[in-house]
Description:
Number of domains of chain A: 2
Strand order of the largest sheet of chain A: 3-6-2-1-9-11-12-10
CATH architecture of the largest domain in chain A: 3-Layer(aba) Sandwich
Oligomer: homodimer
Number of strands of chain A: 20
Number of helices of chain A: 11
Strand content of chain A: 15-25%
Structural class of chain A: alpha/beta
CATH class of the largest domain in chain A: Alpha Beta
Distance between the termini of chain A: 31 Å
Amino acid sequence: MALVVQKYGGSSLESAERIRSVAERIVATKKQGHDVVVVCSAMGDTTDELLDLAAQVNPVPPAREMDMLLTAGERISNALVAMAIESFGAEAQSFTGSQAGVLTTERHGNARIVDVTPARVRDALDNGKICLVAGFQGVNKDTRDVTTLGRGGSDTTAVALAAALGADVCEIYSDVDGVYTADPRIVPNAQKLEKLSFEEMLELAAVGSKILVLRSVEYARAFNVPLRVRSSYSNDPGTLVAGSMEDIPVEEAVLAGVATDVSEAKVTVLGIPDLPGEAAKVFRVIADAEINIDMVLQNISSLEDGRTDITFTCPRADGPRAMELLKKLQDDGSCKNVLYDDQIGKVSLVGAGMKSHPGVTAVFCEALRDAGVNIELISTSEIRISVLIRENEVEKSVRALHDAFDLGGEEQATVYAGTGR
Amino acid sequence: MALVVQKYGGSSLESAERIRSVAERIVATKKQGHDVVVVCSAMGDTTDELLDLAAQVNPVPPAREMDMLLTAGERISNALVAMAIESFGAEAQSFTGSQAGVLTTERHGNARIVDVTPARVRDALDNGKICLVAGFQGVNKDTRDVTTLGRGGSDTTAVALAAALGADVCEIYSDVDGVYTADPRIVPNAQKLEKLSFEEMLELAAVGSKILVLRSVEYARAFNVPLRVRSSYSNDPGTLVAGSMEDIPVEEAVLAGVATDVSEAKVTVLGIPDLPGEAAKVFRVIADAEINIDMVLQNISSLEDGRTDITFTCPRADGPRAMELLKKLQDDGSCKNVLYDDQIGKVSLVGAGMKSHPGVTAVFCEALRDAGVNIELISTSEIRISVLIRENEVEKSVRALHDAFDLGGEEQATVYAGTGR
Lengths: 421, 421
């Protein structure tokens, strides 16, 4: 008998019919003799509908009230799944984030979990009940105000609960049946991975894989909670994310896959005086605006004028704000010009095998060269290579890299009706 | 400076536009220098939509989960109104029933308020904030589970909060601008009443007036909270419900109005042995099924067979269940036959003036006789006369009584687009 935490995304709960289907799966898990805790996202488009209503009553809605509003979505799906479970003859009890003891920081809209004290959930499990916990939400440990955890917050709720309850596995259900070597919509023979280390999944999530949010993987790694990425539309065992890369025998280490990200923009700051502290000024104004920088490149300074250029990428959504701040630096004479380019894409290769296989970078660059793709920027980690290229060359690049590293399988990958999460 | 509690019904909050209009009214009240606490019902059809979803996943949904589900509706409207208020420059803070200290019994779906400890609301008021409290919901004082208060629960929340906070008035907003001498859709010259005593409002609510639920009036009377029934679509001061009938000078006591109820059915149990305890059997099975009985009539027993007949009315929704139980009594020989009639209606005249004006019953019966309406059953209280008649004669009877007692005004009553609550 194991303790299983299951998290279902909005696409798995988009209708009464889907909710009943999910409930059947939950009851089946319980009947296998396991204790089951379920974390639900809001149904289908509920969150978008609530956001739309909020925008109609107040274009700049206060964050505390926004959290009060949005958390209603998970309460609804949670209660409906509990009802559906009872209709299949099992006992269920739903809990809000607060009732489940999900304590967070006070930052509305993007709170962090600081502690999980699931005493009520534990009691209900001990009484043979299937427990449902509303995802994405918690309660400010000081003020007792309702908070939300930001994008992918339900994954984080599930992992944090699994850690607090000492669960054997945390299953993340969506409409995708696992982690693939590439997006099957781009690469038809992409293969589903059976197992990935936490580090590999972290790198994949960081470079654009949407299958799990970075924060939930970080949490799982920190508390060593095995994750299983599965589809609520099939019985495929999915992909297991567990264990450290260090524990993978060298000869078994492989390349995990190719990920893409077309949500970033490239900013180039030209003519920064090549003196200590000048580049720091650029990054300080961006940091103070809470804009995340991803890739960074600083050129060698020009011998003529003793000035240098810095290029970095940041989320496109933050691009206009970044430009506004940097234009002020330009006005102050801290740089000569600022350029903006949002027609870029990032392609990354990730895998523990990279450590032990020399020449990966060479093959990587040759594959893109053969596909006629120009590389604008490169950044690497121990188990990842990322390049910045033109946005309209992303798909061709993914296929070229997938082929060059022989990641494809014999069969076409299964793609389900719903796409994305 | 006063402390005002305002309650807005679902029809007043059915769209973003209506929510902004309500927020404007709330902010205007605050700007007049008053402290304001607002209780919101769920938006328009939200509750019905949630009930529909629940029915799709489980035809007999567990009551605890139903409460978890339905309370989401008030959280949504509450947060949206708070956002709208902030857009008009005032500070607002929303509270769930639990956060506002609305403690209830454990009966899910129809819990009773046992205490209100609004310390957080009081603090927020002291900090100059407009407070919003989700109506219809509370928290079980023992288990901390979320509960709901049953039909009209938001009115009860508002009155209970007004009592706990010592508010000067509790304003109940809907799409009707006051209590009328009759339904203006039936009687075009029905007049809006300026003031009513608690007892009169209680009688009106008990005999079918939908404007306030009985329980909220009982609560207001017990804690002496003045109620003002108003429309969120106009600036009319509405109707004040306050004070005891005993305090009305005899010469000022008048008739308040005519109310109707077509939600009941008539059950007749024939041939009950006229012995002690036999009639009690009938009422016991009905009471055990938690079916409320309204009017009752027992005929004189027949001399021939020493048996008697009992007629009573109960909600139509409970009719089939009542019949099933009584048919069993018939099978046991405790009666000879059971008849069911759901084509009936009840018309009532209410008013403190009845006490001091002899002959009201005579005028009442004559008015119906002149209208050609047959009375099937009569019941009275100190300040009320109710009769059971054919359902299709209800409107004609209301008009006849309204005329006979000279309740009409010179002008046509204003009827707003939305009808009912």
